[in-house]
């Protein structure tokens, strides 16, 4: 290449990220996974399975499943939501991955880097979990240990790439779960296919060119499709690489590689971490969401719930609610009044109105019927957001906010959100709370005994001789 420098990127010279990633995928074994990483991985698996079930009800997922069924082809894997109908593995991944992100309830990667704006990093579970589940159906007789090996391999690759890129990726409008998620899905699929050497590195190159997702589509059906396409594209990259399809074998490196072009470069210091030396699922960890909306809203939602509960504030008592926050929260959470459940996932007025009305914000509240109700629309108009210069000056490494509730009697109630947000590594959901979340995801779709069986299967995943049985358990 005649031009050896990209003036728009801060990319260290002579990196070997692609080679390191390929070596990790090729060499890592189930026995290498730390016990605590496996334990958290099972929690992420259980969370993801519940989200697949919840997403199966969505109209967007139904459209994708019907489109895949009409396309026809190999009967590799079940098409979620269409009983006993199967399709090609990549199309099945598109449907399943979209379902997993349909409620924006899937887990979030954590970072301790102050320059990493919350929201910058990926939702790490759904792309590699999707790829592992559909590829296991295609291959058959994939044991639970082999399945978790593939899933956590993809999880680690995805998180490290996301962490190492500079913040430009998110700041310029890319959606990491759609872009970096492609590598997680690819790594998991490649692990199950047993790709090695040059074919494995070419697969990373294919994935690099297929990765996509832009933030303008937040609050629409296309945002979860980003994750569906990441899952599909990762699987496609692995299948093409297996056939000998070629790409740049150093596509994560160099002035025109993924890290430079998509992320504006990479952190030279962080590249020293390597893959699997410290597992990202352990350090700095992963957060499992208590609410089906953007994680940036969660501390504020918890604060609102605490304020109205402690003061026993009824909906009719509220005159106005003012949320003070920084631009890291207010810019991406961009809908002042949500008209439907997709917009509500990126609307503080909508989320806080749910708490004011029902003292909860779950699958029922995040529905088109509830969001469009007269009570919700009226309550949203009582909530406003305000940029707080003092919070802005503290930086973007934490999700900081405060609320003031003005009451009709002239009194006010106020407080600060807990920066140790619920669901994060410092304040994780208990196993019982996680199971309750999964049951709420499955409510109205799976009977109680089917929910019990799904939860049991997740906790005992490493005892299974063929994980394809789990795919069947997702179907009502």
How would you explain this protein's 3D organization?
- 49% of the residues lie in helices and 7% in strands.
- It has 476 residues and is of the alpha+beta class.
- Strands 6-5-7-8 form a 4-stranded mixed sheet. Strands 1-2 form a two-stranded antiparallel ribbon.
Query: How are the strands of the largest sheet arranged?
Result: 6-5-7-8
Nearest-angstrom radius of gyration? 22 Å
Q: Which consecutive residue ranges, at least 5 long each, have pLDDT under 50?
A: none
* Biggest sheet details: 4 strands, mixed
Helix content: 40-55%
- The general outline is globular
Total beta strand runs: 8
**What series of H and E elements makes up the topology?**
HHHEEHEHHHHHHHHEHEHHHHHEHEEHHH
Distance between the termini: 54 Å
**Sheet/helix structural class:** alpha+beta
Oligomer: single chain
Number of helices: 22
Summed up, what is this model?
The protein is of the alpha+beta class and 476 residues long. The protein has 22 helices and 8 strands.
Tag the structure with descriptive keywords.
alpha+beta; globular; 22 helices; 476 residues; four-stranded mixed sheet
Strand and helix map with partners:
Blueprint: H1 17-27, H2 35-55, H3 59-71, E1 77-78, E2 86-87, H4 89-101, E3 108-109, H5 126-139, H6 144-164, H7 168-171, H8 176-179, H9 181-193, H10 197-210, H11 222-243, H12 258-263, E4 286-287, H13 298-310, E5 318-325, H14 327-330, H15 341-344, H16 348-358, H17 368-371, H18 374-380, E6 383-387, H19 389-393, E7 401-407, E8 412-416, H20 431-442, H21 448-459, H22 468-473
Parallel strand pairs: 5-6
Antiparallel strand pairs: 1-2, 3-4, 5-7, 7-8
